[in-house]
C-alpha cells in the first residue's frame, strides 16, 4: 500500500507497513522449489547408496518417495512472469465496467501448483454497483476466467 510520506509520518504508520520505507513488495519466486527438489534428489541418491552398501532394503522405498518428491517439486517450479500490476491491468481490460478499487492475490492451481493471480475488482461508482473476479495466469498472462455480478444492496 502506498502512503504519502507526510501522511505516514503524521499518522505514525509503522515502518514495516509503509512501502516508502520497505520498498515495493514482490512475490517470492516459486523457482526456489528447485532447491527443495535438489535436496530431495540428493537424499534419494544417498538412500540408494545406503542400500547398495548393505543398509536395509526398505530404504529403497524411501529413495523412491524422495525421487517422486524431487520430480514433483521440480515440475512445480513455475516462473511468475506476470506482476501484480500487470494482472490488475489485464483484469481492468477484461471488465465491462470502469474499475475503481481492485486487489490481486496469487494462488496456485492443479497438482503442479501453477501460479494464478486472483483479481477482485469493484466498479468505480460510489458505492460500487458491480464487482468481479478475474483469474490471470501468472506464467503467461492469459485470462483463465472472469465473473461479474451486481453488488448486493444492504
Order of helices and strands: HHHHHEEEE
- Please give the order of strands in the largest beta sheet: 1-2-3-4
Uncertain stretches of 5 or more adjacent residues: none
Fraction in beta strands = 15-25%
Shape: elongated
Number of helical elements: 5
Rg (CA only): 23 Å
Map the helices and strands:
Elements: H1 5-11, H2 19-22, H3 33-52, H4 59-75, H5 84-94, E1 99-109, E2 114-123, E3 130-137, E4 143-150
Helix pairs in contact: 3-4
Written account of the structure:
With about 150 residues, the protein is an alpha+beta fold. It has five helices and four strands, in the order H-H-H-H-H-E-E-E-E. It has helices at about 5-10, 20, 35-50, 60-75, 85-95, and strands at about 100-110, 115-125, 130-135, 145-150. The chain has a four-stranded antiparallel β-sheet, covered by helices on one side. Helix 3 (about 35-50) packs antiparallel against helix 4 (about 60-75). The radius of gyration is 23 Å and the shape is elongated. The mean pLDDT is about 85.
Amino acid at each position: 500500500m502506498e502512503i504519502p510520506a507526510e501522511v505516514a509520518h503524521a499518522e505514525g504508520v509503522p515502518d514495516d507497513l509503509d512501502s516508502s520505507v520497505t520498498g515495493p513488495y514482490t512475490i517470492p519466486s516459486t523457482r526456489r522449489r528447485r532447491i527443495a527438489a535438489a535436496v530431495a534428489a540428493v537424499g534419494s541418491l544417498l538412500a540408494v547408496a545406503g542400500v547398495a552398501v548393505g543398509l536395509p532394503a526398505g530404504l529403497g522405498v524411501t529413495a523412491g518417495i524422495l525421487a517422486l518428491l524431487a520430480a514433483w517439486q521440480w515440475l512445480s517450479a513455475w516462473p511468475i512472469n506476470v506482476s501484480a500490476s500487470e494482472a490488475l491491468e489485464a483484469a481492468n481490460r477484461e471488465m465491462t465496467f470502469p474499475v475503481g478499487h481492485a486487489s490481486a492475490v496469487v494462488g496456485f492451481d492443479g497438482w503442479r501448483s501453477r501460479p494464478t493471480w486472483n483479481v477482485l475488482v469493484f466498479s468505480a461508482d460510489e458505492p460500487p454497483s458491480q464487482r468481479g473476479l478475474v483469474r490471470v495466469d501468472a506464467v503467461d498472462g492469459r485470462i483463465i476466467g472472469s465473473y461479474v455480478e451486481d453488488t448486493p444492496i444492504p
